Known about the structure:
The chain is an alpha+beta fold.
Amino acid sequence: MTSSGTAHPYSVEEGMVLVRQARHVVEAVTTSLRFDKRIMQEQLYKFTQRYGLFVTIEFYPTKVMRGCMGVAEPIAPVGQLLVEAALSAASEDPRFVPVSRHELDSLIFEVSILSEPQQIKARTSAGIPRQIKVGRDGLLIRYGYRSGLILPTIAVGEGWNAESFLNNVCIKAGLAQHTWKVHDVSLYKFTTQVFREKEPMGDVEEVILK
């Protein structure tokens, strides 16, 4: 099963399983010399649907980012992508040093399930911001060999309007901030279903963006 339109496939209970497994993956890889990724993925054998997925790690209670990685396209089952994204967020995000086991008690984990990206098309660049709803949409830009993605939760947290959101996704891709106005740029929007720990190792809630 692949996604289209909006992605809200999971119950809070299922979201709790995903978030706790993301934490468990990072705990295991930072505290044990023996880590078997395959076993971790097999523990999520029920999550066979295909959606894009990101894992975000933040400091608690400040919500300062500690790592965020994933993939936009539904290239593999969610159970597989969850383990890959958690590992990447903890150890491969180029903006941060790898997470250490000493930090785990001060971190919260968040899992975002992405709908399939839908290309944004407009006759002129002036029409592009009108197709984006901050609080609902995430953005993905591709131009040449560069690409960048920003989740909806980031735009809400930063208080951006649609144009600021577009400027910042360009910057994220290493492009000039107004590249979204270039005629041959590829822009996409997507929605997310987000599950997050309320506190480190605490209850998991579904985040409703407004």
